[in-house]
């Protein structure tokens, strides 16, 4: 017969933590409890943008450029301006959830796409009008 490598130990306060009302906890030798790691070693992954924010919270909400994105929807460059509108709404939602860095990043992308949409839409409208006028003059 092989001997068991597990044992039972009475741990103070364990009855409240394990939820069973038992004052003893069965543990294997290889699975003894270890003190938790320091907070700097808990995760090696990238911290969330709310934790790494360097901007003080009293600076105000970041801009989401929703009005500009809605205005750009009147330009005839629909794939770009619809994406700008989506980024703008995502920026507003991130700002409301407290993710200020994400809201700024999404707001900048919404602004960029809105401006590109307005510029391209203006170029398309000017080209259309100039070609229409030129076509009517030669007739």
Automatic annotation (TrEMBL):
One Pfam family hit: CD225
Transmembrane domains' residue ranges: 65-89, 110-131
Family the entry assigns: Belongs to the CD225/Dispanin family.
Domain of life of the native organism: Eukaryota
Coiled coil stretches, renumbered: none
GO cellular component, one term: membrane
UniProt protein name: TUSC5 protein
The keyword Disulfide bond belongs to this UniProt entry's keyword annotation: no
Keywords linked to the UniProt accession: Membrane, Transmembrane, Transmembrane helix
Entry's localization field: Membrane
């Amino acid at each position: 017969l092989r001997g068991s490598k597990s044992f039972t130990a009475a741990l103070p306060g364990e009855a409240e933590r394990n939820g069973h009302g038992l004052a003893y906890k069965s543990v294997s030798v290889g699975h003894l409890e270890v003190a938790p790691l320091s907070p700097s070693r808990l995760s090696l992954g990238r911290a969330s943008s709310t934790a790494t924010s360097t901007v003080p919270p009293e600076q105000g909400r970041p801009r989401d450029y929703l009005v500009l994105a809605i205005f750009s929807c009147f330009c005839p460059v629909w794939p770009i301006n619809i994406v700008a509108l989506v980024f703008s709404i995502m920026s507003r939602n991130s700002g409301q959830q407290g993710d200020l860095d994400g809201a700024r990043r999404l707001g900048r992308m919404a602004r960029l796409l809105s401006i590109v949409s307005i510029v391209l839409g203006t170029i398309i409208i000017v080209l259309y009008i100039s070609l229409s006028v030129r076509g009517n003059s030669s007739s």
